[in-house]
Design a protein that fits this description.
The chain starts with 17 loop residues before the first helix and ends with a strand. It has a 6-stranded antiparallel sheet. It is α+β, with helices and mostly antiparallel strands.
Length: 182
Amino acid sequence: MKTNQIRASQQGDLDSLCGVYSLINTVAYLYDGRVNRHRLKSTLVSSFQDKWPLEELLEYGMTEQQMEYLITVCLRQGYYHKRYPLSFRQPYINQKKLRTLKIIDEIEVFLQGDHIYGCRLVMLATSTHWTLVKRTDHNFLYFFDSIGAHKAFKRSFSLRAGVSLYQLIPESIYFIERSAEM
């Protein structure tokens, strides 16, 4: 029996929970792992199920509207807001004539403004995946990602479908900061 050609399944192979993982990883990263990740996952999934069938999340992933709903009901109010306050900003909502390079540059400026390392993240969705950007350099975006992606060339992103490896969805870009309220 040959088993050396079989690879282990990973998050994303059998489910589409990258949006949920992105929210869990946001709180964990910005609060040094102090959040109970299992409890937060249960809260997010339960809140999702209050409005949509769980099968939809598992099979198709999370839309921008569903992500915004979970951020609003789970992280902008209640227990997690009081214990782990975060500021979420969507700078590209309803903006016209955006350019990929402008967005990438603004992500870099936002993350470089992180004077206390680890207090800012950018969450973004491509056409197939939600992920977190923790830093940038001249050539790369560096991720804190649920499927183990570590970095990608900046030039591998585009606003137009089929032009590059990753299609950015401007409405699904969140600039996130750990709030000073704690």
